[in-house]
Write a structure and sequence with these properties.
The protein is 45% helix and 17% strand. By secondary structure, the protein is of the alpha+beta class.
């Protein structure tokens, strides 16, 4: 092999590998096709600039350019070899990049087919690939001429990046009216023509600069943002005079070291301001136009700043040969490290996060908002202490890029090496969640991958500065540095998985006492109370003497006025609910049926976790058939402590509350009646609290053969005397549901997704799911029933998707975790698996389900909440092993 070719391959190999890894992996980071096609060419452009600058940049960094030019070989041959190797390396990277996209969108996951038109995807794919090819040529030509002209790698990188970006913005905003009326073919022709003209001109300039290159670079002086020339040279004494203390001198030197990046940040600021002015002058651009895309997605260019600033901090000192001399200053290395680390992080956060957020916020204030920053109009957006999740993510991303760049800079000997190491570090961080997920599957749900990522982020804030400090102190001992980093990172990864596993499995519960003991039994085994729930958050305990105790579950720390940090904490760990009231008995006794409804209504007009709490009318039926209602209707306060009779009829039998707050009543003559409305409008509640006392019950249909009614999360079933079951819709229409005929309604538990469980009249336990007609647009078909086990001593059950709890006659609780093989189906093998014991007590006398778990009643009158594992699937921690104490019906609530 030609020695020059071999030398060129070795010269480009580190940068080539880093850029190849970046371009092959990055298509798999996108979950939406539009994001992949929009951002992938930009990232490809960034990688190609690194490769292009690397060709001559490493020659200048290593000081080999002069010896290269003095070889007994013609400059034409040297140029041909360097350009051939460079373009061949770029072609290999583009081939890997194209193959990765092709595999993702056509052969592997086929993501676009799920949500997009395949024809549009094919067109976008071709446009993205052709655009990537164009930016590759532009980046290679730009990197060559800027490096040969400036011979300062950081400056060449920035100018190679900013010049094409500035030209694109200029074309987009000067010709945006023409582009709006022109076809896509014309627009692409103009853009590709401009890219070709720039590439040819840049390549010609690079060729000319190389053939006329001298031993020194251009004579314009060193590019410095802080001071361009020292005009006072010769006017001062030749004797060195110390004017600044060492710390001040180091701080000034650090500012001068970053002068190139700061100067380019100023250029980026000018471009961004010009973009905002154009947006204000011309109004909002068409969303799919070139000007609109450039306007909306210009701000991510700022995220390159923290990466470049961090990569410059230490590596450029080593390339310039000033690192050893700096250690001779009368300042400790710890202070010197701090003077490098904190300015790099500060400038990275300032320019990478604060600057684009500030500019786009000012743009919104002057009437030129960026739709990509329209986070304030999203009422569901998480807000923490005045900052939206979008702002926090941008700040965290800028911090992460700054840390990655600085860490890479402490390992490298030049800016280009640091950029390559930083790219590899970022890719490793992006792949960490996938690695954690696969490792978690291998070990069998040992930790939550999201929790592992959260722990990794916190650990990185400590590990990265610690490793970087060691690299900064002992950079001359390369073997010691690499051993220290390898062992440090391996130990950090081990710590992350151990710590996340300990947190996820709530290791501290091992040191907590077991379930608290229950008190003495308050009920006779022959005459037990009945625990009922409305399928959502309401709870009722009906005592043998006809008294009814009412309660409701909720999250009081999410009420209106709660701390935003509490909301954020709830979103992370899903804490257990608590009793939120009324925690009282309905006035009187001899109740055969009653309902009270606590409202937790989200205000749709406000951003953030604001709710409106209150209680609807308490309505009950006594044993003599009379109908009673709470004496008054007031917001917030529960008014069931005082009841008044409603009407003079004495043939009422049952009352339930449908989802939405309206009432469904059953008379002794078998007729159904509805009372109230489903229209619960928050805006009307501010002036008029909803009540049914101003209306009268209306008969539902003309039939009089109804036997019982029931309310659950997903159904409102009613059974006739002939045994048929009908589902009552929100509009009061009734639909025959023969699939539910065999269900015993008083033991029926609905999980909310068309799966349910019930206890047969012979004490057997059953689960049920729908068999959908997949050939008929997934419409509901036949319901299938599976018996769970062969025991016949079950008395109650609670169902929550793939988790079920059941109560035996001996007072013990048992649970099942079904796998759910496909859709909503239970594998037949699952129902044959023996259950596991839930809890340690055997004095349970009642069980009911809620939308996020199950509630049990003990013989001493205490109520306990057991969280559903599915409710914790999106949380960072497993559900607690022990139940949450809600209160005691005889002693109030916790």
């Amino acid at each position: 092999m030609n020695p020059l070719v071999k030398k060129e391959i070795r010269l480009l190999l580190p940068g080539f590998l880093a850029v190849l890894l970046l371009e092959v992996v990055q298509p798999w980071f996108w979950s939406v096709a539009d994001d992949a096609f929009g951002f992938a060419p930009v990232i490809f452009f960034f990688g190609m600039i690194i490769l292009a600058v690397d060709s001559f940049g490493r020659e200048f960094s290593l000081g080999t350019f002069q010896s290269l030019m003095s070889q007994p070989v013609g400059r034409r041959q040297i140029w041909q070899i360097k350009i051939t190797v460079l373009f061949f390396a770029a072609a290999l990277i583009f081939a890997g990049y194209f193959a990765s996209f092709e595999l993702l969108f056509h052969h592997a996951l086929r993501i676009p087919i799920w949500t997009f038109n395949p024809t549009i995807i094919e067109s976008d794919f071709r446009d993205a690939m052709s655009g990537s090819g164009a930016v590759m040529v532009v980046a290679l030509a730009g990197g060559l001429w800027t490096t040969l002209l400036l011979r300062q790698i950081a400056a060449a990188f920035w100018i190679a990046f900013l010049v094409p970006a500035g030209l694109l913005l200029l074309i987009a905003f000067v010709m945006f009216k023409f582009f709006d009326s022109a076809s896509d073919v014309v627009v692409f022709s103009v853009l590709y023509g401009a890219a070709g003209l720039y590439a040819v001109s840049a390549f010609w300039l690079a060729h000319r600069l190389f053939h006329r290159a001298q031993d020194v670079a251009w004579t314009g002086g060193a590019i410095s943002f802080s001071k361009w020339r020292y005009f006072e040279g010769g006017s001062e004494s030749s004797v060195s005079v110390r004017r600044r203390k060492p710390i001040a001198a180091l701080a000034k030197k650090e500012f001068q070291l970053q002068s190139i990046s700061l100067f380019c940040a100023a250029a980026l600021l000018v471009l961004h301001i010009a973009l905002i002015v154009m947006r204000k002058v011309h109004g909002n651009f068409r969303e799919d136009s070139l000007a609109g895309v450039a306007s909306d997605f210009f701000w991510p260019l700022w995220l390159i700043m923290p990466l470049v600033i961090g990569s410059t901090a230490v590596a450029e000192e080593r390339k310039l040969g000033t690192a050893e001399g700096q250690f001779c200053l009368p300042v400790s290395r710890r202070v010197q490290f701090a003077l490098k680390f904190f300015p790099a992080i500060f400038f990275g956060m300032l320019l990478g996060a604060f600057m684009p957020l500030l500019l786009e916020q000012l743009a919104a204030l002057i009437g030129a908002p960026n739709p990509a920053f329209d986070y304030e109009n999203n009422p569901g957006e998480l807000v923490i202490s005045g900052f939206s999740l979008f702002q926090i993510v941008i700040a965290a991303l800028a911090l992460g890029l700054s840390l990655a760049g600085f860490f890479a800079s402490t390992l490298a000997k030049s800016f280009l090496q640091a950029m390559g190491v930083a790219v590899a570090t970022i890719i490793a961080c992006c792949l960490f969640p996938s690695f954690a997920g696969r490792l978690n599957s291998f070990f069998g749900d040992a930790w939550n991958p999201d929790l592992a990522v959260a722990v990794a982020i916190l650990a990185a804030l400590v590990i990265v500065p610690w490793l970087a400090y060691g690299n900064f102190r002992y950079f001359q001992e390369r073997g010691r540095i690499w051993r220290r980093n390898v062992f440090g990172l391996a130990g950090a990864i081990l710590f992350i998985f151990i710590c996340s596993a300990a947190l996820y499995n709530r290791v501290w519960e091992v040191f907590e006492p077991a379930e608290p003991p229950h008190g003495p039994a308050m009920f006779s085994p022959a005459n037990l109370p009945a625990l009922r729930g409305d399928g959502q958050t309401g709870l009722q305990v009906r005592l043998p003497d006809g008294r009814i105790w009412c309660d409701s579950l909720g999250y009081p720390y999410l009420d209106d006025g709660a701390s935003q940090w509490k909301w954020f904490w709830w979103a992370l760990v899903h804490p257990l609910p608590v009793s939120t009231g009324p925690r009282q008995f309905i006035a009187g006794s001899n109740w055969v049926s009653a309902t009270t409804y606590r409202i937790q209504f989200w205000n749709p007009n406000d951003a953030g976790p604001r709710k409106v709490d209150g209680y609807l009318d308490t309505v009950g039926v006594q044993a003599d058939g009379t109908l009673w209602i709470s004496s008054e209707a007031r917001p917030v306060a529960w008014t069931g402590a005082r009841m008044m009779r409603f009407g003079d009829e004495t043939n009422w039998l049952q009352v339930i509350r449908k989802s939405g707050g309206c009432l469904l009543l059953l008379k002794r003559d078998g007729t159904l009646w509805h009372w109230g409305t489903n229209n619960l409008n928050w805006s009307q509640w501010q002036t008029r609290w909803p009540t049914v006392r101003g209306s009268k019950p209306q008969q539902l249909g003309a039939d009089s053969g109804w036997q019982e009614i029931f309310s659950s999360l997903n159904f409102t079933p009613a059974r006739k005397n002939d045994g048929s079951v009908w589902d009552i819709n929100p509009d009061w229409t009734m639909k025959r549901d023969a699939n539910l005929d065999r269900i015993v309604l008083e033991t029926f538990s609905d999980s909310g997704d068309n799966t349910l469980s019930y206890i047969g009249r012979d004490g057997t336990l059953w689960v049920s799911y729908n068999l959908y007609n997949e050939s008929n647009d997934n419409t509901e078909g036949t319901r299938r029933y599976l018996q769970v086990g062969r025991e016949t001593n079950w008395v109650a059950t609670a169902m929550s998707w793939n988790w079920m709890v059941a109560l035996k006659t001996d007072g013990t609780l048992w649970q099942w975790h079904f796998h759910r093989s496909s859709g909503l189906r239970f594998p037949e093998e699952d129902v044959k698996i023996p259950p596991t014991r839930l809890g340690i007590h055997n004095d349970w006398i009642g069980l009911t389900g809620t939308w996020d778990g199950a509630v049990t009643l003990a013989a001493d009158g205490s109520l306990w909440f057991w969280p559903s594992p599915r409710y914790y699937e999106e949380a960072l921690l497993k559900p607690p092993r022990h139940p949450q104490f809600l209160g005691n019906i005889f002693r109030g609530a916790h």
